[in-house]
Amino acid sequence: MSGGTTPKIRLRGLAKAFGPKVVLDGVDLDIRAGHSMVILGGSGSGKSVTLKCILGLIQPDAGLIEVDGQDLSKLTRREREALNDRIGMLFQNGALFDSLPVWENVCFKLLAQRRITRRAARDKAAEVLAQVGLAASVGDLSPAELSGGMQKRVGLARAIAAEPDIIFFDEPTTGLDPIMGAVIDGLIVDCVKRLGATAVSITHDMASARRIGDDAAMIHKGKIVWTGAAATLGATGNALVDQFAKGEREGPIQMELRR
Amino acid sequence: MDRALDLTAGLGRAAILVLRGAGAVALFAAEALLHLLRPPFYGRLFLRAFVEIAWFSLPVVALTAVFTGMVLALQSYTGFARFNAEGAVANVVVLSITRELGPVLAGLMVAGRIGAAFAAEIGTMRVTDQIDALTTLSTNPMKYLVAPRLLAGTLALPLLVVVADILGVMGGWLIGTQQLGFASGAYLKATFDFLETWDVVSGLIKAAVFGFIVTLMGCWCGYNSGGGAQGVGRATTAAVVSSSILILASDYVLTAMMFSR
Ligand SMILES: Nc1ncnc2c1ncn2[C@@H]1O[C@H](COP(=O)(O)OP(=O)(O)O)[C@@H](O)[C@H]1O
Ligand SMILES: [Mg+2]
Question: Which of A248, A188, A178 is nearest to A212 (CA)?
């Protein structure tokens, strides 16, 4: 895919089961540096688990994860923390800290890394909030006071505030109306471009996938079954992907309605 | 024969589970304590937890202590009257409160308030990915969530027990002077004449241990909470039940260690 150069993130044979339930069954994936990858797949297909494995939040049962050619299982705890310092993550449900005001959420990582004083953090938060289209006054609200769309934006602001060079977006537009979804997609594209970051986004939404992604990959039954250009989604010639893209009931993907 | 085997096998399994759980909790506690030694230190979070434990538990602990002191005075008076030892009421009240009831009742009250609150708060953070979010935001969740709370609990409970000791003795004094006909000065003199420093200090040491237990179990149960609202509910119940039992069990061990002469 990336012809010779080391991919930013390389997954090989990544496997994870929770008890008897096999979630990842040998995931192989290359994510090109400075590009935007979207991962598609049905609910519960292990997309979030994949990201959590890369972040070190879940210990995979087997397989290789490399970032910049470095095997993550060989990192010391300090090196692992240093790597996480460079990764931003937007969680599927926001995961904003509801005990803290928005401005402290946004600048949490900068404050934790002591790159900024508490006094300067409010101004910095206002600046980052502006980048995601929110007024500075939002900074003084509590996350519980925000609408779903605003929470996503604050989550996005928190993920980019420390200017990471890898960013993960877990279903950034799920649960939003189509217009807000498009707005968030636009913000993501802008942010990623401005930071020159490598981005990995998870989505169910084809329009969103085409807007955000350079590359796309589809995960099904614990494996990557297709990778290709995001622009080709919908006409990939892969029966699984095309069924998913068109949302058809009939096709190779059979929903397990009963168990 | 088979029955007996089943029974022993079941007991064995239960014992293994308990031991494994105890080991896991001990490792969890050790990790949190190590974080107290290495920066960054979260003074703000420590203060917040300290205020929540010490200040907001004050009303419950105070009420419990006053009534316990009152009941103790009444009970010991009527009981001791049977062998003409009514004079010992003041001593019985102060010894029972400082050595035993102050720390244990304060511990149980705080277990209900704080153990439950911490388990619910941290459990909610677990099931909404906030704990994972901490890790991705350059913050160690053990250091940020658990360590300050453990320290706060260990330091706050002795403070609460000092208040409980004073109010418990006051409750006894109130009944002694108003209802049982003791002279105020004589009651207080009897209270302090036989009181030794160790009576109070041993109670404060117990309190520190109980404070540690309550916050530890609250944090542990929340941290390992299962999914959803149900998981958090279970974590909350488990925190209160386990810390209450551990308070009573460790109270026995501590008492045996402190007063076995
Ligand atoms: N910590 C966990 N413990 C047990 N099961 C889990 C855990 N995390 C995820 N799973 C299971 O793994 C499967 C994949 O989850 P996930 O990656 O979140 O799906 P999605 O592709 O929708 O993001 C789900 O069936 C989920 O129940
Ligand atoms: Mg998911």
Answer: A188
Give yes or no for residue A204 having a pLDDT over 90: no
Say yes or no: CB of residue A36 within 6 Å of ligand 1. Answer: no
- Residues belonging to chain B: 261
Contacting residues of A for B125, CB less than 8 Å apart? 97
| A87 part of contact set with chain B, CB < 8 Å | yes
pTM of the model: 0.91
What is the reported pLDDT for A239?
83
Cβ of A45 closer than 6 Å to ligand 1, yes or no, is yes
What average pLDDT does this structure show over B193-198? 92
Q: Mean pLDDT over residues B200-216, rounded? A: 97
pLDDT tens readout for residues B128-180: 999 999 999 999 999 999 999 999 999 999 999 999 999 999 999 999 999 99
Q: Does the beta-carbon distance from B138 to A113 stay under 8 Å?
A: yes
Q: B246-256 burial, b if ≥16 CB within 10 A, otherwise e?
A: bbeebbeebee
Distance between CA B92 and CA B72 in Å, rounded? 8
Contact B135 A84 (CB under 8 A): yes
CA distance B15 to chain A (A): 23
Q: What is the distance between the alpha carbons of residues B163 and B158, in angstroms, rounded to a whole number? A: 9
CA distance A114 to B41: 12
ipTM score here? 0.92
pLDDT score at B185: 94
* CB-closest option in A52, A97, A114 to B130: A97
Q: Taking a C-beta distance cutoff of 8 angstroms, is the pair A219, A41 a contact? A: yes
pLDDT of residue A257: 59
Residues of chain A positioned with their CB less than 8 A from the CB of B132? 52, 55, 57, 91, 95
pLDDT value at position A243? 85
Percentage helix, strand, coil for chain B under 3-state DSSP, each rounded to 5: 90, 0, 10
Domains of chain A: 1-86+166-173+197-253 (3.40.50.300)
Residue nearest atom 18 of ligand 1, based on CA coordinates: A48
Domain ranges for chain B:
42-259
Contact (CB<8Å) B138/A55: no
